[in-house]
Each structure stands twice: as C-alpha cells, then as structure tokens.
C-alpha cells in the first residue's frame, strides 16, 4: 500500500507543477490592470504592481503612452518546498494616453506604493486648438 501512496503523492506533485506553470504563463500573457486619471496639469496612470520592489520596475514613457515591466522574485523559505508556483515572475502593462500627454517631458515620474500599485505621473503638453 505504501507504493500506492508514494505513486499518488508523485502524481499529485506533477499535476500541481503543471497547473502552476499554466497559471504563471497565463498571468505573464495578461496585461497588468491599469487606470488612467487626469487633472488640469497631468495624467496619472495607475498599474497593479503586486510583490515588487522599486529596483524590479522598468517604466518607459514614450509618445502615445506608458509601458511598464515588473520582474518579481520568489523568496525561498527554509523548511518549505514549493508545490504550486502559480504567480508569474514577469508582468507587463501599457496605457495609451491622450494626444496632449507629454510622457518624455520633465515632470514625468513614477512612485511605487505600499498598497501594491505603481503610480506614473505624466505632464500634459500644450493643448492645440482645433479650428
């Protein structure tokens, strides 16, 4: 009977490993959730940024929008073995911005918050009147 138990445990671990990989891949292919807010002076782009440190965040401000990449790392815990590694380690997101946004201008800044969000502030450029 112990061979049957051993086989069952091995099969369970193999299934959990595959499920974890599939969940991780799905997260990596799904863009980060994002909100875009505006004030008179600037746009605020808020990305979900769970489980990262500031050094693990790359923000690219480009014409037309803002892109982010988060590279997370799993901490190993003494006395524990990972059965299911379902959280993605690399996450990407992008937000398109209105035409008057100036993402490359002075004043573009990013702030990683304790609540697991990344705030990217993008100044508004000159508004052009359309006739």
TrEMBL record:
Organism: Halarchaeum acidiphilum MH1-52-1
InterPro entries linked: A-crystallin/Hsp20_dom, HSP20-like_chaperone
Entry superkingdom: Archaea
Protein name: Hsp20 type chaperone
All copies of domain SHSP, residue ranges: 23-131
Family to which the UniProt record says this protein belongs: Belongs to the small heat shock protein (HSP20) family.
One family name in Pfam for this protein: HSP20
